[in-house]
Each structure stands twice: as C-alpha cells, then as structure tokens.
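Fig. S4 source data, part A: sequence.
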Amino acid sequence: MLIIEQKILSKIFILRGEKVMLDRDLAELYGVEPRRLREQVKRNIERFPSKFMFQLKGKEVDSMVSQNAIPSKQYLGGALPYAFTEHGVLMLANVLKSKQALDVSIRVIEIFVKMREYALTHKEILLQLSRMEKEVKGNSKDIENIFMVLKELIEKQSKPLPSRNKIGFRRNDEID
C-alpha cells in the first residue's frame, strides 16, 4: 500500500494553482491506454468542466520538462496532456467503469485529502509561529526597557557610597 501511495504522490503536480494528475499517469494507474482514456473523456466531456480537467499548454509542458517533473515531451505521446483535479479523477473513474479504475481513484482521492489535511496542519503551525513572532516583536521594546533599567541599577550599585556618620548610640571606647 505504501508503494502505491508513493507512486501516486510522485504523479501529483501543481499546475495553475491546482493539484493535478496527468492523463498518461492516470491511464497507467487505471490499467488503460492513454488514448482510450482521452477518448472516454471526449465522449463524456460534459462531465468534465474546467474545475475538473484542463488541457495543458505548450509552455506548461516545457516547464514540466525543464523542472524534471516529466522526462521529455515524448513521454506524453505527442499530444498535449489533460490534467485532472481531485474531482476530475473521481469523475474519470465513473466514466471508465472498471474495478481497477474505481479502486485506484479511491486511493487517489484519499491521498488528495491527506495532502489537504497536511497542508492545513502546516498552515496552522505557520500562523501560530507568525503570531508568536508578532508578540515577541511587540514585547521587544518592553524587554529593552527592562534591560535599560537593570543596567542603571547595576551602575548605581557599583558606584562607591559616600561616607556617612554612623547613627545610634556609641560606647565610650568608640568615641573619636
């Protein structure tokens, strides 16, 4: 299970601000040919609004190759690939109607959910750190003032005190 999860995670990319998977990678996971997957999508295009799926542009493919997200343009089979969001992956499983597609799509959706939870957890931690930083910055003037007063007290105590006349009764042997 962990190997499958890692394989799926390695095939999730962020494009246009969305976490997506490419049609070729999904076809491999679902056990179908990429062109068959694209055919089913075209036959059921009304099920795939832009929030579920979009086709990559040449610049996006070039960027993915340059970032080593995909090995080369040939990896994509010559066509500009489709990118499927979390909802598109689920819809794709419904369109393909195979047991393997259904099982894999459930795993993919679970991974998308875990990624979202992970991101939210880290976002909360970052927000708390930001608040703490603001508090420390807000208190830094107070801390500086405390140190300044402490330094003044230390300086006053390090100066010798002027001699004073003793107060109180003196015995006869103490008289000057």
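Fig. S4 source data, part B ends here. Residues 99-158 form the longest helix (60 residues).
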